[in-house]
Amino acid sequence: MIKSKQQGLLIVISAPSGAGKGTIINKMLEKNNNLWLSVSETSRPMRANDIDGITYHFCTKEEFEEKIKDDYFLEYALYANNYYGTPKKYIQEHLSKGQDVILEIEIQGAMQIKKLIPEALFIFIMPPSLNELKKRLVGRGTDTKEKILERFKIAYQEMNDVTKYNYVVVNDEIDVAADKILSIIKAERCRVDRIEDVFLNTEEEYMHEMLVDKDLDNNPLEIN
Q1: What integer pLDDT is reported at residue 26 of this predicted model?
Q2: In whole angstroms, what is the distance from residue 7 CA to residue 41 CA?
Q3: Which CATH architecture has domain 2-38+99-218?
Q4: Using CA atoms, how far apart are residues 160 and 19, in angstroms rounded to an integer?
Q5: Helices (H), the chain
Q6: Is the whole model's pTM more than 0.85, yes or no?
Q7: What would the pLDDT profile of 71-80 be if each residue is shown by its tens digit?
Q8: Angle (deg, nearest 10), helices 130-140 and 145-158
Q9: I need a surface site. Which of 86, 177, 220, 224 has the fewest CB within 10 A?
């Protein structure tokens, strides 16, 4: 009899800008109510479709740097001249309840987490192609041409870091990509090193052994 750990999984998901990780994660949250998404904090300006506290927790660069001094973040990184960080608050609380916690973070932050919590699950989302990535960045309509070029260059560099992750999922179809990641999470929960205990000397196991012994006495095994 196997008892799995009640502790939830810490799942780190990264992707180049424009690869669609946010859309995939939202689809995963629709499909699995045991997932909790940690909302990152950022110093970048809000966009038209952003909602403070849902898309990100927004603050000024100066406020972010003060929080760094106060050891407020589990990890943080400077990306495209803006800070992004994961507040420590609430993460352990959700993990201890058995909920799987998703961190949607950049590669710099992910590698900080890997040093601190190497047993976390690291998943990298790739765009179907560089051409499709360019289309998505342009299609957003939120960045200048210079900003799009900067993001594209960073994305190209980031894709070379895929080997630092446990799994890679290509985002060609949102539903398919979300289902793949949910399957990875299910498989990870079945790993032997995530099992809390195996009950071998309980009364129930003893009764099973007795029944097996009795059955073998009455019906001995025949080995050809």
Answers
A1: 95
A2: 25
A3: 3-Layer(aba) Sandwich (3.40)
A4: 14
A5: 21-31, 61-69, 91-96, 107-116, 130-140, 145-158, 174-189, 203-218
A6: no
A7: 999 999 898 8
A8: 150
A9: 224
